[in-house]
Structure formats: C-alpha cells, structure tokens
Amino acid sequence: MRILLAGPKVCSPWTEGRKRFVRDLAGAFAADHEVRVVTTVAPGECADFAVPAVSAVADGGARHLLGFHRLLGRTLDAWHPDLAVHLPTTSFHGRYRIGNIASMWLADRQCAQRGVVCLTLMYAITREASVRALRPWVRHLLTNPYVHGGHPVRFGVALPQSDVPSAGPPRELLFMAGMAEPTRERLRHVLEVRGLGVLLRAGAPLAEAGFRLTIAVPLLRDPLLRRSLLEWPGNTWPAAALRMLGEARVPDIFAGMGCFVFPYGRDETQFVPTSVIEWSRGCWAPARHPCRASRLRGRPSRASTACSTAPVRPAHRACYARRDALRRPDAQMA
To answer: From which domain of life does this come (predicted)?
Structure first.
C-alpha cells in the first residue's frame, strides 16, 4: 500500500511531540508499506526522514499552509497514494483556529477530489476546539482514546532500542518544549501553559536542595528571549543552577538527566503527550507527568520524591492518563 503522511511544519528542531510522532510513524509504516512525506520547513531547518520526503521552505504561518497545500496537490497527482494521513498542527487559539480548520477541510477535499481516502489524525487538540467543532469539516477524524466523539486510535509506536547512557543524578531536572517560533507570545505560552513558570518560581528552594534545571526550548536560540526568560520576575533560580538550550536532540538530551519534568499549567483533557515521553522511558530517564505543576511550588522535598522515586508506568498506561488519574501513583489505564 502507498501511504502519504502530510502536514505542515514537520521539520527540525525535533523536540515537538507532533513532529517526532510523524517521524516515528513514517518509520513504522515503512516496514510494510511504501511511504512518503509531504511537509513544509522553516528557513534553515530540514525534514530528514527515513522515507522519501518532499518539502517546501516557508516563513510565516500563512505561507506554511499555502505552500503545504500546493505541494500536497502536486504529490497526490504525481504519486497516486492509496491512503493519505493528514496531521494538522494542533493549535486552535486566536488566529490559528480559522487557518487550521480551513487547512483540515482543504486537505480532505484535495484527497476526495482524487479518490484518495484521507484520515485526519489529531495528535492533540487544544481546549479552544473540540471533536464536535472539528468533525463536520473532515470525513475521518482520528483522535486519542481520551478525546470523546472521534474515532479513537492509540498513538504508541514501537521505538528502537536506545543507545543513550543511563540517567544521571536524580537532582538533574530537564524541562523541554517544542515551541520554535521566536516570539514573546510563544515564550508566554511556555511559561503559563506549559508550566515552566511554576518551575522557575520554585527555583530557590529546589536549588537549595541541590537541584539543577536544564530548559531546552527551540525559541531560546533567540538571545533576546533567553535574556527575557532569565530576567523573568518570577525566576528564582540562581544562574549557576540554571542552563538554557536552544537546541536539543531526542533522545541524546536525556543522557545525564535524572528526571524529565513534564508539567502543565492548565488542565488539558484533549492533549496526550506521546513521542517525547516514550523516548524518555526508552532511555530509562524517570519522568514526572502533568499532575498540575503547582504541586512543586515551594516544596523541594516533595519534588525530590516525585522525580527520584515516583513509579512511572509504560507509555501506553499512566503517561496517557488525564491529570486526575496521574495524581494516583498506582494509576492504570484500561
């Protein structure tokens, strides 16, 4: 079977879960099928896949979508796949909502006009949208099992054995997010939604207890944003205990880390982090999943216990659970 994986901005840096999921999925499909990828890349980035990939360079959200759909139409006409899997971006807040929904509808129409089955696979759905709002725009909407109303599929893939060394000291903490657009809006998202702000506020007691924090976010390649983060009023980490990286390679980044901290600043019942957390488990790096990052505030002893001793279930169990389930260390998924 010929399978076409299609979606905008599936390119380096490979720290975003959606991007890694597409790349992992391409490799998994390639074992039994003929696979190609269609995507767009930002200037200076690349789309290195284990399967043939066609990409167009674009700068700016609208240009990414326009370039993606032009390339998708050409590839459908030239290659004639049996199945297309469209993996849209996952943001639906503000100006992203109209563009993302329109792109989902257009990709589905492009495939339908050529007699190709199109599966719209949502790696995540931010809370500004819902299955009910998205389902009328596409023929086949696939979601994770914990989003009600779609066609549920499990997103786990079999990962290769990792060569990354064992985890480092338990007090070496890693925070990682995939946001690459170098804007203050995206930095604010990392601080407020992804929960980094809570970790920064807890810096003084954590550092006093011997913890060190590595922050790996692509947008920190911008020197002005690095400075803004360092000078953020809520940051209480001493400079000697804080490290910022604008580039991180998964799974290499887990080497030497004692705990991969994955907080969230708000409840997200429609977002299931998969690929990056699966890699962390494959590298034997303990992970602390989103049981509300506010629990770390001012409590270094609890944070120490959580990061160094809390049992972490396999990727298909507790790391897919909602927040309330993750509060229980013995949480299991059906």
So the answer is: Bacteria
Pick the CATH number of 2-152 from 3.30.750.24, 3.40.50.11930, 3.40.640.10, 3.30.70.2520: 3.40.50.11930
Fold match between domain 2-152 and domain 172-326: yes
- The H-assigned helical ranges of 176-312 are 184-192, 196-201, 203-208, 223-230, 275-282, 300-309
Q: Tally helices (H) and strands (E) across the chain.
A: 11, 12
Top-level class of domain 172-326: alpha beta
Q: How far is CA 164 from the centre of its chain?
A: 20
Q: What is the CA radius of gyration of the chain?
A: 20
Are the C-beta atoms of residues 274 and 245 closer than 8 Å to each other?
Answer: no
At residue 280, the pLDDT reads: 56
- Reduced DSSP (H G I as helix, E B as strand, rest coil) percent helix, strand, coil of the chain, to 5: 40, 15, 45
The pLDDT confidence band at residue 270, using thresholds 50, 70 and 90, is low
Residue 115, both tokens: 């007699």
SS3 state at 216: strand
Show me where the domains of the chain are located. Answer: 2-152, 172-326
Q: What is the distance between the alpha carbons of residues 89 and 11, in angstroms, rounded to a whole number?
A: 12
Query: Going by C-beta distance under 8 Å and a sequence separation of 6 or more, which residues neighbour residue 44?
Result: none
Query: How many angstroms separate the CA atoms of 82 and 230, rounded?
Result: 50
